[in-house]
């Protein structure tokens, strides 16, 4: 675990899910991404699903902004929603051009089972749960991407074909954004009841499992079986 200003909730949540993070870090998709040997077909599947995911993730972030109890939280999650839809989409568009993916292809590609499950969970949580639980559910997407990005950045060659992805998620700008979300989760946990803190931990763990499912689905190029 890395990052400055980590408080009690985030320390506990990361420690409770450390083994799951290690499973994610070493899973075949991320190992091949780091080595630069990930097949174009698998990355294409991933980038299409991730582009769909970011739209729904942006909606969940916007709902977190609406539920935030103070102006700082409103600004934090409203900006995060904008970045998910606008800034990170620019990264995807570069890969879309490289893979010959046009708007029609994107629109015609259904959400994979893992993407559909992940977004359904985040949006249901964002609508139905209190702010602190919503933030806990959103945190793994930020935090795990940062740690995976840093890990891959440390061992990827300069000519890795997925260098743009690696530099984005392993870079300092993304790391600082993640620190702000960690701080928001810790601040929310301070005022939460024991029951709500328990729900925060369940939300963090469930979203972490869904992170694994998303990458595993991309590795298997998984679609709907029926």
From TrEMBL:
EC number from the UniProt entry: 3.5.99.2
Keyword Secreted set for record: no
Reactions accelerated catalytically: thiamine + H2O = 5-(2-hydroxyethyl)-4-methylthiazole + 4-amino-5-hydroxymethyl-2-methylpyrimidine + H(+); 4-amino-5-aminomethyl-2-methylpyrimidine + H2O = 4-amino-5-hydroxymethyl-2-methylpyrimidine + NH4(+)
Keywords attached to this entry: Hydrolase, Thiamine biosynthesis
Keyword Zinc belongs to the record: no
This protein's GO CC annotations: cytosol
Domain annotation Thiaminase-2/PQQC: ranges: 28-220
Listed GO biological process terms: thiamine biosynthetic process; thiamine diphosphate biosynthetic process
Enzyme class: hydrolase
Pfam family for this entry, one: TENA_THI-4
Pathway in which this enzyme or protein is active: Cofactor biosynthesis; thiamine diphosphate biosynthesis
GO MF: thiaminase activity
InterPro entries named in the record: Haem_Oase-like_multi-hlx, Thiaminase-2/PQQC, Thiaminase_II, Thiamine_Salvage_TenA
UniProt similarity note: Belongs to the TenA family.
Function, in words: Catalyzes an amino-pyrimidine hydrolysis reaction at the C5' of the pyrimidine moiety of thiamine compounds, a reaction that is part of a thiamine salvage pathway.
Protein name: Aminopyrimidine aminohydrolase
Organism whose genome encodes this protein: Methylobacterium symbioticum
């Amino acid at each position: 675990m890395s990052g400055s200003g980590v408080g009690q909730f985030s320390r506990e949540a990361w420690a409770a899910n450390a083994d799951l993070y290690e499973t994610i870090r070493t899973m075949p998709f991320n190992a091949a991404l780091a080595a630069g040997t990930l097949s174009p077909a698998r990355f294409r599947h991933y980038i299409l699903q991730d582009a769909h995911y970011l739209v729904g993730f942006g909606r969940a972030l916007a709902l977190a902004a609406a539920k935030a109890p103070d102006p700082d939280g409103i600004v934090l999650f409203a900006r995060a929603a904008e970045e998910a839809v606008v800034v990170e989409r620019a990264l995807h568009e570069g890969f879309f051009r490289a893979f010959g993916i046009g708007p029609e292809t994107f629109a015609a590609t259904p959400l994979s089972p893992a993407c559909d499950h992940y977004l359904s969970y985040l949006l249901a949580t964002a609508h139905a749960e209190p702010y602190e639980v919503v933030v806990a559910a959103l945190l793994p997407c930020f935090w795990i991407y940062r740690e995976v990005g840093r890990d891959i950045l440390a061992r990827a060659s300069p000519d890795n074909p997925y260098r743009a992805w690696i530099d984005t998620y392993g870079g300092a700008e993304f790391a600082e954004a993640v620190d702000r979300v960690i701080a928001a989760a810790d601040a929310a946990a301070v005022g939460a009841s024991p029951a709500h803190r328990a729900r925060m931990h369940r939300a963090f763990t469930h979203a972490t499992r869904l992170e694994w499912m998303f990458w595993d689905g991309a590795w298997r190029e998984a679609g709907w079986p029926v």
